[in-house]
Amino acid sequence: MANEKKPSEVERELSDAELKQQQDLARASSLNGKDQPLVKNIYTADPSAHVFEGKIYIYPSHDIESEASTNDDGDQFAMRDYHVLSVDGENGETTDHGVALSVDDIPWAEKQLWAPDAAYKNGRYYFYFPARDYDGIFRIGVAVSDNPAGPFKAEENYIEGTYSIDPAVYEDKDGSHYMYWGGIWGGQLQNWRDGTFDAEDIYPADHEPAYAPLVAKLSNDMLQLAETPKEVLIYDNNGELLSAGDNDRRFFEASWVHQYQGKYYFSYSTGDTHKIAYAIGDNPYGPFTYQGVILNPVLGWTNHHSIAEYNNKWFLFYHDSSLSEGQTHLRCVKMCELTHDENGVITPINAYE
After folding, report:
1. Which DSSP string do the residues of 136-165 spell out, in sequence order?
2. Residue ranges of the alpha helices (H) in the chain?
3. C-alpha to C-alpha distance for 129 and 115, rounded to whole angstroms
4. Which residues lie below 8 Å from residue 61, measured CB to CB, with a gap of 6+?
5. Where in the sequence is the domain holding 152, given as residue range(s)?
6. Tens-digit pLDDT profile for residues 215-232
7. What's 181's domain CATH number?
8. Do residues 55 and 38 touch, judged by C-beta distance below 8 A?
9. What residues contact residue 300 under an 8 Å CB cut-off, 6+ apart?
10. pLDDT at res. 28
């Protein structure tokens, strides 16, 4: 392992020309009535979508204005509560159900309620979320409700054995639930060694395997891990693990899993190259083999997505910064149709075409 410096803000941001091009494309798309945010009354990001009770429910993070400086640790993403959205049909109206959970109601959490997810089992809804504890360490918590829109009541403590960010929960055919999580840079995966947090950032050398996200089966009560977390390994077509220097393909954050034609699709964000990519495997643990890009870069720095089937169609949910005209910490959630071809290959999406 090598202690590597993260790319500077200048190196990893889009160029002025690229930013202007994206702003122009997003503006033209909006004027033509396409690519509209699902809600405009608040800023939303990181949408996790599920079909519950015949509707699409979306569990996003809630962006707010922040005085924190913009940096690689994500201090500018200062979210303090969660709203739940629902969409009544493919082209239906989106409802903002209001605050579902606030940091003030989470005993162990101090700040930064980042990308969440939700699951259903035995008549109850479970809401999974990351937040910084009072030691500044990202942990993953869970809250429970009888209603998919909340409000949710948080457990007294975070889920034992969890750390980092971006929980995503997948329900397999047998009713088992698996939680995936992890992210580098501000997501703190690089700070964990042998189950212990270290404030020093340690990154692999470019030729070494990239940091892997984590997966664990959840307990029957959905409140704990049922096993020791395992790494989600992503290989190229030559059987080599994706390397830390392969920024166009390696995992950065934003895990998601869906199943299509008996295969498991693990999708994720490449972070500083601004893509949503995917890999395919034969079971929920992987290993997975890299396939390609789902969503090409959009306006803004981050991207985070989910994929859900509704009425025999597949949809991609994602965010960009078009509502705030390019402010990277003030984003908006969108959706569009996603297509698998006859071989299961996902057709790459250019959001503004």
Report:
1. S-EEEEEEEESSTT---EE-SSPPTT--SS
2. 9-12, 16-31
3. 7
4. 44, 45, 46, 77, 79, 82, 113, 114, 115, 116
5. 9-338
6. 999 999 999 999 999 999
7. 2.115.10.20
8. no
9. 319, 320, 321, 322, 326, 328, 331
10. 58
By the 10 Å C-beta count (0-12 exposed, 13-18 middle, 19+ buried), 137 is classed as middle
CA end-to-end distance (rounded Å), the chain: 42
Whole-Å CA distances, 72 to 169, 246, 325 = 26, 19, 21
Rounded CA separation 10/184 (Å): 18
Residue 347 domain flag: no
Is residue 349 assigned to a domain? no
Q: Is 159 exposed, middle or buried (0-12, 13-18, 19+ CB in 10 A)?
A: buried
**Among 64, 62, 63, 60, residue whose Cα is nearest residue 87:** 60
Q: Active-site residues: which are they?
A: 46, 253
Record the tokens describing residue 302, joined without a space: 């981050």
User: Do the Cβ atoms of 255 and 268 come closer than 8 Å?
Assistant: yes
In a domain, 4, yes or no: no
Asked if 44 contacts 333 with a C-beta cutoff of 8 angstroms, the reply is: yes
**pLDDT given at position 33:** 57
Give the model's pLDDT for residue 5: 42
Residue 326 and residue 68 in contact, taking contact as beta carbons nearer than 8 Å = no
Asked if the structure places residue 353 within a domain, the reply is no
What number of other Cβ atoms are within 10 A of residue 36's Cβ? 15
Distance CA 257, CA 279 (A): 10
Q: What is the pTM of this model?
A: 0.93
For residue 96 the two structure tokens come to 């903002």
Q: How many domains does the chain have?
A: 1
Nearest Cα neighbor of 139 from 99, 83, 179 is 179
Six-digit token pair at 271?
């972070």
